[in-house]
Amino acid sequence: NNTKKDIKIEQQTVQTKLHNNNPVIRHIRTADPSAHVWKDGKVWMYTSHDMEDAVNYDSMDGYHAFSSTDMINWKDHGEVLHSKDISWGAIGWMWAPTAIYKNNKYYLIYPHSVKGSKDDMRCGVAVSDVPEGPFKDLGWIEGVEGQWLDPCVFTDGDGKTYLYWGVREPKVARLKDNLLELAEKPRTIEYGNTNFFEASYMHKRNGKYYFSYNAGLGGFYGMADNPYGPFEYKGAINPKQRQDHHSVVNYRGQNYFFYHWQNWNGGSKFSRNVAIEYLYYNEDGTIKKIYATNE
Ligand code: FUB
Which of 13, 83, 125, 172 is least buried, going by the fewest C-beta atoms within 10 A? Predict the structure, then answer.
């Protein structure tokens, strides 16, 4: 077990190295990071997989899992779910995943087109006994359909799990424990603005619920005292990012913001790379703006 002093030194080391280390994954193109601290004490992230010369998002064909204990060195556990293993799904079109530990299992929940119709996306659910997968598809969540679903799952302290999703109009509903059915009618989220585009995200800190999203030009957020809102609009988290699809974790006392760049080493908006920044809060709980080290 690390002493407090050891942990502090380790964090300082990470602080000086983190920026230089972006993008954190370089051997393949990755996007839409869903970051988690699982019970093994490691940080895990599940990402979309972009192709090198992609001209669209159609060629995104599966998800990768990565783990780390220092935010610098990431182990690639390989592809954990591929579109060819989803009986109801198209080949490709594996967009931004979210993950959750529930029922003593690990789940990926992901937007994916049904066979024959790229615009008809569903929220697939896949399960594994271990964080590194492989994940096995279980079907889709009834009642959640459309394009750009961008799901986020969040479990509150009382064990209730919520699904956030949507494009242009964010939605929320509680999920049943099987994660395959909604437990209630979806509600449209009120967040004090009209700039929501995609990539709903929920995290909780000190009893406050933070609903954040990509506005099409940057990441923005609002705060509430409950998971449904209405959320009080608080402005930008990551104002300069052209496409902000993010997640947040607290690891060993430090908060981190995971997102992706679009322009590293010949990259493009279809050929992206995951990056990580420190995330800081003000005393009143609002978030200090991220100055992304690149786009
Ligand atoms: O990765 C494909 C799509 O691009 C995601 O679903 C959006 O959030 C954006 O990142």
Answer: 13
